[in-house]
Every structure is written in C-alpha cells, then in structure tokens.
Design goal:
single chain; 103 residues; 75% helix
Length: 103
Amino acid sequence: MSGDAPKTAFELAMERLRQKDREVGVEERPLTDEQKTSIAEVRRFYQAKVAEREILHRDALAKARSREEVEKLDGALRHDLERLTGDRDRKIDEIKKRPPTEH
C-alpha cells in the first residue's frame, strides 16, 4: 500500500489499538505455526459443536407444541451459543499467550 493513499477507517482503528497496546506494554509478536495450527483446530472443533447444537435445536423445534416451548428452546440455543463462543475465544486467547516452544 502506498504511503500517500488514504487509510481506511479499519486501518486507522487498528493503528489506534496498536498504539494503546504499546502504551500499556502489550507485546505484539507474530503467532508461531504451532499456535496457528492450534487455533485452527480450536475453531474447527467449536464450529462442529455449534453445527451439532443447531441441528439438535432444529429437531427440537420440529417437536415443539407451543410458542412458549419454542421461546424456551430459542433461549437455550442462544445461551449455548454464547457459552461455546466464550469457551472458544478463551482457548484461543490462551494459545496466543503461550510462549513459543523450542524444538
């Protein structure tokens, strides 16, 4: 990208975030291949869990007999998806914070 080209809002926001990180002492280091592989595995695992949960939800909806039952099932799905997303993000953060292993 040319130094003269205007920056997008995304690029400006990322620059501000990097600057804030530097100010508070957050070290920016590239992910290792091992970390990238681990993160990809975590993403695939949770993507499969979400798909499984959505299939179960559709099956349960087909058997639901009332509006209240559907609302309860929808609420349970939302709760489970939030939990799965939180678990996934937590595991990815742990992977990113791991020190590189030496071979």
